[in-house]
Amino acid sequence: MGNPYDVLGVSPGATDEEIKKAYRALSRKFHPDANVNNPNRERAEERFKEIQQAYNQIMQEKQQGGGSFTGYGSAGFGSYSRQAQNTPQMQAAANYLANRCYQEAMNVLNNITEHSARWYYYCAVAHAGLGNNVTARECAEQAVRLEPSNIEYRQLMQQLNFGGTWYSSMGENYGRPYESFSRFCISMVFMNMCCTCCCI
Question: Is 183 inside a domain boundary?
Answer without folding.
Answer: no
